[in-house]
Amino acid sequence: MKITILQRPGLIGKPEFTADLEKTLANIAGSLSASTTLDGFSEMGWTRVDVQGDDSEVLSELISRQLGRAQIYVSGIELHEVYRGVVIGERKGNLGVGLGIEQPRPINLIVKEDTLRAQLTDGKTLPLEEIMDHYCLIGDSSVSVRVTRLDLDTGTIEGWLSDAQIELFSDWITTGLDRIQVFHCLPEKVASAIRKANLERDVIATEPMSLTAHSVVCKIGTDAAGLIPKLGSILRQSKLRPFLPKRIIARCRPW
Question: What pTM was estimated for this model as a whole?
Answer without folding.
Answer: 0.94
